[in-house]
Amino acid sequence: MESKNYGHHHPLLLLDEEQLINNQSGVADCSKCGEKVSAPCFSCAEYCEFYLHKVCAAAPLEINHPFHRDHPLVLMQKPPYSFGTYICDFCDKTCEKFFYHCPDLDFHIKCALFTFNIAENNLKELEHFVCQDPLVSTKNDDEELEEVRKCFGCWEPLANYTHISPYCGFNLHKKCAELPLELSNICHCQHPLVLQFNSERLSCKICKVTQKRGFVYGCSSCKLVFHIECLSPPLDLAIEDESHQHTFTRLLRRVPYICDACGIEGIYNAYICCTCNIMVHKRCTSLPRIIKSKWHDHCIFHKYFLRNDFKSSSCTICHDEVNPKHGSYSCSYCNIKFHLRCVTEEKGLYSVVSLENEYEISNGGLEILSDKSVESATCVFERNDAGEATKIKHFKHLHDLKLSPFVGGYENNCDGCMLPISEPFYYCLECVFFLHKVCAELPKVKHVWHHPCQQPLSLISNKAFCCGMCWHVSNAFAYECCKCETKICLRCMTAFTPGARTCLKHEHPLFFYRDYKGRCNACSLPTWAAFCCKDCNFVLHRGCFSLPITAHHKCDVHLLSLTDHDDNSYSESHYCDICEESRDPNCWFYHCAACDTSAHVGCVLGQYPFFKLGSIYEDKNHPHPLTIVNKIYYYPECDKCGKLCEDLALECSKSDCKYIIHWNCAASRSLQRWWEWLL
């Protein structure tokens, strides 16, 4: 390895600890690796704030690394990427300083040299660090911290095995620092397996999971890799599993099989329960029996086999079929099921539930009698013969609500989501208040898969907000994050609830796909995530999915209906009766059949279609309560800007006070609509 100092033209002085303290004007960072310097280190003799770790100063220009024999690692000053940073393929941290680079890998200087020493079995620099024993149990307060700390070698939790103290700067199991460079294993008898970086991002031949960073054992000739943990023989051939009542025993023969716990194919390291006649992956021997997932309101059970009485054979997340002969998670209360791989794919979206804290279990041990994890927003006073609640009290309304069947007409809007009433709903006998049945049944507190915070969201009302998903401003019901205070409207909340969704403009149920490339049937624009029909090629954006089925506008005395096709082939009729601009006949529009009025969706709905008009708004710049109004025919001048109030405005509730102001003049920037409709 050729060694050379570069990146600085002045002489460098070697400093001990006392000299470093006297030489620093503050905390100094190494000019190569960007980390805080410690003695012994080099400093510029001309006092130009240039410091180098001794290791970094001696860093060679090129390394032929035993863990990566395809290319040499070349020392570079700046990343060759447009965004100016890189992520180290060993420690997973971002940096923009000097680094070692090849076409497949990037490493911090210290990480490249550290792993080189591991490969050369030169571990003298770790001898003075104390090794810590694996943790038997972890307090709740430390769970998040322990989850973050992973071994840089195998990327398993650091606390699982004896490990080097993380204060040395490298999270590493002692066993991973002492791995042999080559080994022979029954999993691949043809060639020796070589310890290496997974530069080609291959999935493990045993568990089928791709580990992008750290070490793997691989065979370059056969293009396959094995995780360190998957190859490691267990301390005991029998595994006691808290989620299964019997002991799993390792099968010492290499046989292909389908795992009875997750339904995924396995080739090596099968574990069997002779009592239950099941065969599983090693990782599936410790599956949690009960979890609380952000994909569902109730807790869900893991079962090895399912009955055929579920209302759908599809996974609630990916919508592909769930084989009842293999393991999966399910909710018997809602009669739905999930692929194990889908519901446990992201660790931040679920948590393990203790049996005694969250539910009461029947004698059979698999059915939920009561789920204490969901708090209802209503109190039921009366039910009909079918068990349906007919009289309730919602905690966000003063009076009792009665259930009414939908009998046609769309004149009223739901006070929860602000969409037209179009299904069985609850109404108040004492005031003008309506709630869709589905909106009334939403819980007080809800975990959702589409919000990154771990904290739940709480139901709020009568507060102006901008939805964090659709960006519409409203003052109806919403869910607010207890941590970041992000609000999500009920339209988005119900639309993104997993399962089949109903669209009045399509005959089949729609399912949301997080990754779907196509074109929206409503606006003809490309989609990246969309609501799709499994029976035909019908696709909707999430914004188009929640469009009101009817809407009022001063251009017509009747209600305008959302229309998905234009029967008139005469091109001159394809224009908007509001803005008088041309209209794409292939896009959805609002139409009145009686008056032959047609208009763009955006022109009809305006800037703020989801505000509850007539509600009270408090403004610190005016002494009286203000009423939210939408002026249609009479346009007074705004008291702030002097322009006519032609859209949403705030009007003083005192009859003798003529104060009025545009909503955009009174509200903060975050509560103003700044984007345009796509239709």
TrEMBL record:
Q: Which GO terms describe its molecular function?
A: zinc ion binding
Listed A to Z, the keywords are: Metal-binding, Repeat, Zinc, Zinc-finger
Q: What superkingdom heads the lineage?
A: Eukaryota
Q: Does the keyword Repeat apply?
A: yes
Xref: Gene3D superfamilies: Zinc/RING finger domain, C3HC4 (zinc finger)
Q: Which residues form the Phorbol-ester/DAG-type domain?
A: 245-299, 301-350, 505-555
The protein here is known as Phorbol-ester/DAG-type domain-containing protein
Taxonomic source organism: Gossypium klotzschianum
